[in-house]
Amino acid sequence: MTNKNQIKIFDTTLRDGEQSPGASMNIEEKLKIATALEALGVDIIEAGFPAASKGDLEAVTEVSKIIKNSIVCGLSRASKFDIDAANSALKHAAQPRIHTFISTSELHMTHKLELSAEQVYEKVIDSVSYARNLCDDIEWSCEDGTRTDRDFMCRTVEAAIKSGATTINIPDTVGYSVPEEFSEIITHLFNTVPNIDKAIISTHCHNDLGVAVANSLAGVAAGARQIECTINGLGERAGNAALEEVVMAMRTRNDLMPYTTNIKTELLNKTSKLVSAVTGFPVQYNKAIVGKNAFAHEAGIHQDGMLKNSKTYEIMTPESVGVSESNLVMGKHSGRHAFKEKLIELGYDDIGDNAIEESFNNFKALADKKKNLYDEDIVAIVDDQVIRVNDIISLKDLSVVAGTKGPQTAEVTLIIDENEHFTKSSGDGPVDAIFNALIHLVPHKGKLQLYQVHAVTEGTDAQAEVSVRLSENGKTVVGQGSDTDTLVASAKAYINALNKLIVKREKTSPAKMSNIS
Ligand code: KIV
Ligand code: ZN
């Protein structure tokens, strides 16, 4: 029996999220995120836009092969070429969905598409009918929906459903709407479109005015039963509705919003961290649900209340979103078996024996240096190990001269294709000296767009986790590295980015279309 208050969560981190400048991911990273989304309980994973690039086509194909419990969706414009590309990328999917869209606002039809409303109307029918002949699960979106003439929207929605669409998505493409208006649009569709009961209505809200989550919830209250969203609200410009926020809002205020989702909320924090690490996009400290301070209580009066009864200042428990007190884990005497058990507990049950062995050795080395080891340390060690598996370039040695006297210098030895290469460089500070040495050893035109350091745990002996974003000829990569020595972590992160850049150079792919959000 279907539950009329069940809300489908459609995650578009890998498609709309990835379109945000600087957030591009490689195939391994996409697979990692898709696996995490499936574990999280996401109903539909939009894995990419297959006609946009070879990389997207490959990503949707590979995600389709491994995901079994979520629907895998590929985006396409209203053309046979795009729909065929999506269909072919989805051929291995256990549950495929083709999502096709076209703009319906006067502004977009005139200036972007250069088509009349009647031409767009015909394209809706042609594209949806064509897609429906290939796949049973078809979603149709009216791009720039919230700035579309209401009568025209109703006509196109009716035609899309008649042509075989089973989900109708209403995008607030430019994040222009506000909750009252968005609710009216959905209500108007329910009151006007004769065959509306044959499809699920979906929201897709961008956050330009900071109300994407509020708009999505208003849409649900008006009858929508699917929310399109991204982890951490990732997405072009100000991003999309944040998955963790819409889900926790409905769960926490179930008295006002009596809706349910399939999301395992205890995995929200972990998934948020994964997306942040892969993209190099930090989560702001005071971000709702998954920010570092979301459950922190500093003010004395709050702390006092919390000690008496946590409900005084907490509307949901940290555990409900997977935030727990940092766990002190094993020390240097812990053995392989305990380490493996810990990895399973942290969700690393499939990294392979070699990665486990390497990570264990690194764990032992860290335990010699650092007094207290926490879960976060183990996560950093394993992630550091896993991201380096296919690297052509690796760091052998690094010595740095830093301090007030200057000049700051770095001596770097790299292994490149199994051969040692050494150089010494100076720079404006030790990090600059290291990066100059790396540029000398691996000449490239990549521009450094981001250099970010954060401490994995508390304390001055904490591991540093460094992210480096490089951009070369329109291709962006994010590298990561962690170590108790911030400078070593910086070198590792830069080298990781270089390795990814080399892989990207090898895959020549047409530029992504920039006008789809
Ligand atoms: O924002 C938007 O309009 C989109 C569509 C492609 C659904 O992302
Ligand atoms: Zn969008």
Helices, strands, pairings?
Blueprint: E1 8-11, H1 13-17, H2 27-40, E2 44-48, H3 54-66, E3 71-77, H4 80-89, E4 96-103, H5 106-113, H6 117-134, E5 138-143, H7 150-162, E6 167-172, H8 179-192, E7 200-205, H9 212-221, E8 226-229, H10 243-252, H11 268-279, H12 300-308, H13 336-345, H14 353-369, H15 375-387, E9 393-401, E10 408-416, E11 419-427, H16 430-441, E12 447-455, E13 464-472, E14 475-483, H17 486-506
Parallel strand pairs: 1-2, 1-8, 2-3, 3-4, 4-5, 5-6, 6-7, 7-8
Antiparallel strand pairs: 9-10, 10-11, 12-13, 13-14
The structure holds 3-methyl-2-oxobutanoic acid (KIV) and zinc ion (ZN).
The site of zinc ion has 6 residues, from loops.
Task: Tell me what the structure shows.
The strands form three sheets. This protein has an eight-stranded parallel barrel, surrounded by seven helices. A three-stranded antiparallel sheet has the order 9-10-11. A three-stranded antiparallel sheet has the order 12-13-14. It has 17 helices and 14 strands. α2 (27-40) packs parallel to α3, α6 (117-134) runs parallel beside α7 (150-162) and α7 packs across α8. A hairpin with a 2-residue loop joins β10 (408-416) and β11. The protein is 40% helix and 19% strand. The protein is of the alpha/beta class and 517 residues long. 3-methyl-2-oxobutanoic acid binds at residues 16, 101, 141, 143, 169, 171, 173, 204, 206, 516-517. Zinc ion binds next to loops.
